[in-house]
Design a protein that fits this description.
Elements lengths: L7 E5 L2 H17 L9 H11 L4 E8 L5 E12 L6 E6 L19 H14 L6 E7 L4 H12 L3 E13 L4 H7 L2 H17 L2 E5 L6 H17 L10 H16 L3 E8 L2 E11 L2 E9 L8 H15 L4 E6 L11 E11 L4 H22 L2 H15 L22
Parallel strand pairs: 4-5, 10-11
Antiparallel strand pairs: 1-2, 2-3, 3-4, 5-12, 6-11, 6-12, 7-8, 8-9, 9-10
Helix pairs in contact: 2-8, 3-4, 6-9, 7-8
Length: 411
């Protein structure tokens, strides 16, 4: 129980107890203006089943005087690093597998400061359970993140704030308006490749819309994605059985609620391209994709994306979110450069604080060396550092950037 000036807390440490929270959880997301799929039950519970492993679930519900849920901290505790630098890491539920972006702390408008203060009081009471905190890929407009930064400073916690790139397309009301945003070259490519494809093949554009279709559609995605990465000499993210199971479970839950945006293109009855995404409100997020390199000269992935965007605009979607990663090829689709916020923090005079301070000093020194050393000197120092890291030492702080799908781009 928190103090009187703060909110009261309830802790959920397993999925069975979390199921009881689901109705209130969904109601809170309905009131939170920055809600995304990544904060929903449909995303996080299948994620935990697939990737939670031996980590400790730590979900904290914050309630006001009337016992109404006003904030939710969906967190977990894991261990990271290698002896003697092994730390207990507090992070957001969903972080650590390279799948989740836009992780957040949903809070009812008007309760941001009380929520942040209550969360820090709770974390202080749990000081023996964690040493280092990482809240990664938070939206930069997150009210909770902004309030936390204020209270970190007030309590003199050690904090490092970073940004990582993301991008999204703001969609207009009509397809014709969208085409005007594109260059003449891109408009011409969309028309040319779309017509060419229909002349050469028997084409079928479709969206996975039934539970019976989902397994075959997912297998098509897995196969296309795997072939694409194998052509670059890498296994691809769907070599992981846990990730394949996650997509089956998460995809089924989203499909049941009409939120799955899973688009496919068949040529002559054979899968040629697939793009897996999902909807929340008037935003569609594009998560993974794959295409058959046999049809790379036909730009099948490019044509499929254009067809999907055209249909989504007609349905009232106003943002096509590419999520994390460098904008790169996405800018030709009209994507605007955005970013996520990473917060790394620790209580003062704790081992996690010492680690962050040392890391911050090391990064500043690295920046100074890069600026002042001649090219060959910096290259030699960099090669030595890479060699040390390859001896088996693990990073104390695992990144959660979603795998950037780059080899043999057909987008």
């Amino acid at each position: 129980m928190a103090s009187e000036q703060n909110l009261t807390t309830s802790v959920y440490e397993n999925l069975e107890s979390l199921e009881l929270l689901r109705p209130e959880w969904e109601a809170l997301l309905g009131e939170y203006p920055y809600s995304t799929t990544f904060s929903t039950y449909e995303w996080l519970v299948p994620w935990w089943r697939a990737f939670g492993g031996n980590d400790r679930l730590l979900v904290v519900a914050f309630r006001d005087a009337s016992s109404s849920l006003v904030g939710l901290a969906l967190m977990a505790v894991t261990t990271c690093g290698s002896p003697p630098f092994r730390l207990r890491l507090l992070r957001l539920m969903g972080d650590g597998s390279h799948d989740s972006d836009n992780l957040d702390l949903p809070v009812k408008p008007g309760f941001e400061d009380r929520f942040a203060e209550s969360l820090l009081c709770f974390l202080e009471s749990q000081r023996n359970s964690w040493e280092l905190g990482e809240f990664n890929t938070m939206p930069p407009q997150s009210p909770a993140a902004k309030a936390l930064l204020q209270f970190f400073a007030k309590k003199k916690w050690v904090v490092i704030e970073r940004q990582r790139p993301a991008s999204a397309i703001p969609l207009p009301a009509t397809w014709e308006e969208y085409l005007e945003f594109l260059s003449a070259k891109e408009r011409g490519k969309i028309a040319y490749y779309s017509k060419r494809l229909e002349k050469k093949y028997r084409t079928r554009f479709y969206k996975c819309e039934s539970e019976s279709e989902l397994p075959a559609c997912l297998e098509a995605l897995f196969s296309l994605h795997r072939k694409r990465w194998q052509s670059a000499g890498q296994p691809g993210s769907f070599e992981s059985a846990a990730r394949r199971q996650f997509y089956h479970d998460m995809g089924g839950l989203l499909l049941a609620r009409g939120l799955l945006e899973f688009w496919l293109l068949d040529l002559n009855g054979r899968p040629a391209a697939a793009q897996f995404g999902f909807r929340f409100g008037n935003t569609v997020s594009q998560l993974q994709e794959g295409f058959d390199r046999e049809y790379s000269t036909d730009s099948v992935g490019y044509v499929l994306r254009a067809r999907a965007i055209k249909d989504l605009i007609a349905q009232g979607v106003r943002s096509y979110d590419f999520l994390g990663g460098q904008p790169g090829y996405k800018e030709k689709w009209g994507a605007q450069v955005e970013h996520y916020l990473d917060l790394r923090f620790a209580m003062p005079f704790r081992v996690g604080a010492a680690y962050l301070q040392v890391q911050h000093y090391a990064e500043r020194s690295k920046s100074w060396l890069r600026t002042h050393l001649h090219g060959k000197g910096w290259e030699m120092l960099h090669n030595i550092n890479v060699g040390i890291r390859r001896t088996g030492n693990k990073k104390v702080s695992p990144r959660n950037a979603r795998e950037e799908d780059t080899p043999n781009k057909d987008s």
